[in-house]
Amino acid sequence: MYTSRSGGQQGQQHLNSRNNSHNKKSGMHKTSDLFEGLPFGKFVLFLNGGRNCLRVSAQKYNMEYEEKESDGPNNNKKLSIFLNGKFVTSACEENIKATKAQAFVNALAVLQKNCYSIKPNPLRDTIKINKSNNQVVCGVVKQKADNAEDKKLDASNKGYKMMKLMGWTGGGLGSKTQGREEPVGYLLKNNRAGLGNEGGKLDRNYFRQILKNYVESEDIRELQFEPTFTKEERAMLHEIAGRFNLKSTSNGKDEERRLVISKKTISNEQILTEILLKNNPNYIDKYSVQVPESKARFYPEHTEILELDM
Asked: For the chain, what is the HEC assignment?
């Protein structure tokens, strides 16, 4: 793991309090133009994929990322990094391998200081959908990417807290409120009898309504249809997902086969808008944001340094 700068959270509480007081006195307010005055424009650093994240982040904005070698002191090679022709940083160490590693660390520090950084949270909420006795039952689990370990959405979770503030009071799913107490019941809205089809048949119209409710919502969590659904039902869901422009992938073999349905790629600008300007709990749960230093006075709760996992 590379850490771009040192310092961590020491003194953060005092700094946030001071910034909040300053904002009130000077009348500062958040602006919808998140990128105003930033030296690298609308470049956003997406902290995923190790050292390749700088190049990939630049490609998303059709920006040219360059690493240029030149002669340095003591016959060592110097490496300079440029973004769209603008100098970012340089390094010169005893050998080229060390030089490249240090140049990357330096560039990460400079860009995190001057640009927005986004990092996917290691634990994500997933909506698991099961079929039991010809009824559909939904529930939220918190799991690590590529990990089947589940963790209940509880009061320590940011998204949970914000849902509570927005008026959600909990309540299980099912005719007797069985199951987990999480905000996923909207998926079954307008399906007769709520859980399961009143006529006793889970047909195309029933599955279509579930995905239609998902598309029309602001929910960005994945839908994971468990192996309790038949091969024919998963094929039907896959076809319906395509019609709604949703992404669908299958994983597992035979009796462990699952279908995961999700919304297409979300832009960095949308993530920043939903978190910084709208405090959207669905996005807050899925992503962490670090603002550039020049924006810290507007968003003191998003100044913690995000580390890149290597």
From this structure: CECCCCCCCCCHHHHHHHHHHHHHHHCCCCCCCCCCCCCCCCCEEECCCHHHHHHHHHHHCCCCEEEEEEECHHHCEEEEEEECCEEEEEEECCCHHHHHHHHHHHHHHHHHHHCEEEEECCEEEEEEEEEECCEEEEEEEEEECCCCCCECCCCCCHHHHHHHHCCCCCCCCCCCCCCCCCCCHHHHCCCCCCCCCCCCCCCHHHHHHHHHHHHHCCCCCEEEECCCCCHHHHHHHHHHHHHCCCEEEEECCHHHCEEEEECCCCCHHHHHHHHHHCCCHHHHHHEEEECCHHHCCCCHHHCCCCCECC
Distance CA 153, CA 225 (A): 19
Please report the pLDDT score of residue 5 as a whole number: 39
The sheet with strand 247-251 has its strands ordered as: 135-144, 123-132, 222-225, 258-262, 247-251
Predicted local confidence at residue 165, as pLDDT: 43
pLDDT at 243 (0 to 100): 95
Q: Domains of the chain: which residue ranges?
A: 12-115+292-302, 123-262
Closest CA to 90 of 68, 112, 59: 68
- Classified by CATH at the fold level, domain 123-262 comes out as Ribosomal Protein S8; Chain: A, domain 1 (3.30.1370)
How would residue 60 be classed by pLDDT, with cut points 50, 70 and 90? Answer: very high
| Domain at 12-115+292-302, CATH class | alpha beta
- Whether the predicted pLDDT of 200 surpasses 70: no
